[in-house]
Amino acid sequence: MSHFALQSNNVIIDGEMIAACVEIKDELTHAIHPHGQALSCPVQDFGDKVIMPGLVDSHVHINEPGRTEWEGFNTATQAAAAGGITALVDMPLNCIPVTTTKAAFQEKLDSVDDKLWVDCGFWGGVIPQNIDDLDELLCAGVLGVKSFLIDSGIEEFPPVEAKDMRAAMPILAKHDVPYLIHAELDCGSFNDVVITKEYNSFLESRPKSWENDAISLMVDMARESKEQGDNCKVHIVHLSSDEALDTIAQAKQEGLRFTAETCPHYLTLASEQIPDGKTLFKCCPPIRENKNREHLWQAVTDGRLDFIVSDHSPCTPELKHIDTGDIEKAWGGISALQFGLPLIWTEAKERGFTLIDLARLMSSETAKFAGLDSVKGKIAIGHHADFLVFDPTVRYTITNDMIKHRHNITPYAGRQVVGQVEHTFVRGHHVYQQDEFINAPKGRPLLKGKL
Q1: Can you say how many angstroms the Cα of residue 91 is from the centroid of all Cα atoms in its chain?
Q2: Which of 192, 378, 406, 419 could lock 342 by a disulfide, CB 3.0 to 4.6 Å apart?
């Protein structure tokens, strides 16, 4: 059906919740009418359920090609659709080959045919060895690039130093794309910490100072870039340390193009509540104490943190060492792609946030950051007809049986949440309805310059 309408008493449009009827034609939002408007096309009425802009998750590890036993485009984008995510951006590592050259990017694009249930953009990577290939990679359509300042865990994706970033940033500025940074610096002296089954031993091994020092370095790099006339966009991924928030605020006050994100696991989990030996909670940087968590919420409230993304980073159950509880050997990463909205809504509504706020933090701001805001991130005439239908009142417990990503493991199993995604539409295609996927994958790649 290429011409139809959706209506509800609660539709999020232009930062307001209003009664409205949204007309869809040829994959785009064609018109926005008053609720109850007589139309010549079929109208689906969702009563008091909330019609929201489809979420845009700009931090997802899909691992295809090369490590599809960890995850893959079919299962990851199904999980995204079940979570109301209508566009995501795939990370350049954990796949084989890593996305650091035009040829590797083409290999990734070749692997997505008929597998995307939602639309998908791609980040490239910057490593010391690929600076000369960077311009060609950016011209191929990646939306920006990512580097690590610390061992990534993947041999073919080594960390960069300041000299590498100095070489890369003018190229990124020319293309006007963000430079995403995994901001941890191994400052030493903590390598002697013995990591046992106690979660706190892992926490001690990756202290806040690693993040704080890395973010201070990136502010210096951003200042230098601005002084040289490039003014490269710098973005801190998955912020965990509350002690770095003032540094980020200072960068913003100086007028640097400096942004930062955090994730549901840092906003909904606290180290004091993580049982020893539960490797599903391991991620880098680590989940910190409850006081730290509350400070991150304050930063989301006042804008020091710009948006919320999943950092879905799955692996096989074997690599998580679930049975042995060996935190040191376990792969670090949280799997929870489809549960982001209910997890955040459960916490956010108690803090005075509205679904309008979450549409901004999980859709419009992420779309803008990834350069997708001309077509994604809001319900507006001419934009892609991307919607989710949300029941904000239903309460339930997350179970492993609900999981749509490849391996049915998540640290959130057994957690009670409020709010459920009931329907997802991607460019007007109804792809998900109350735990069922509809028809065939309709997603497509989102390439810079070809939206």
Answers
A1: 10
A2: 419
Give CATH 3.20.20.140 domain extents, the chain. 50-372+384-434
In what helix (H) or strand (E) does residue 266 lie, and over which residues does it extend?
helix 264-268
DSSP E strands, 61-164: 85-90, 119-122, 124-125, 145-148
Q: What are phi and psi of 144, to 5 degrees?
A: 165, -170
Q: How far apart, in whole angstroms, are the C-alpha atoms of residue 235 and residue 109?
A: 25
Complete DSSP assignment for 106-118: HHHHHT-TTT-SS
pLDDT tens per residue, range 166-182: 999 999 999 999 999 99
Please report the beta strands in 188-335, taking only residues with DSSP state E, as ranges in sequence order. Answer: 234-236, 258-262, 307-308
Give 358-405 pLDDT, tens digit per residue: 999 999 999 999 999 999 999 999 999 999 999 999 999 999 999 999
| pLDDT at residue 193, rounded to an integer | 82
Pairing assessment for the beta strands 50-53 and 387-397 based on DSSP bridges: antiparallel
pLDDT tens-digit profile of 210-252? Answer: 999 999 999 999 999 999 999 999 999 999 999 999 999 999 9
Strand partners, 125: 146
Distance, CA of 387 to CA of 427 (rounded, Å) = 8
Query: Can you tell me the distance from the alpha carbon of 372 to that of 142, in angstroms, rounded to the nearest whole number?
Result: 12
Q: What sign results for the dihedral spanned by CA atoms 203, 208, 214, 215? A: positive
Q: What is the DSSP letter of 248?
A: H
DSSP structural state of residue 312: B
CA dist., res. 11 & res. 13, Å (int): 6
Say how many residues make up the chain. 451
Pairwise CA distance, residues 66 & 71, whole Å: 10
CATH superfamily of 50-372+384-434: Metal-dependent hydrolases (3.20.20.140)
CA 372 to chain centre: 14
Q: In this structure, what token pair is assigned to residue 303?
A: 């804008």
As given in the structure block, the two tokens for residue 92 are 């350049």
Given a cut of 80, whether residue 111 has pLDDT beyond it is yes
The two three-digit tokens of residue 65, written as one number: 């090609």
Judge whether 451 and 372 are in contact, CB under 8 Å.
yes
pTM of the entire predicted model: 0.97
Instruction: Say how far apart CA 43 and CA 47 lie, in whole Å.
Output: 12
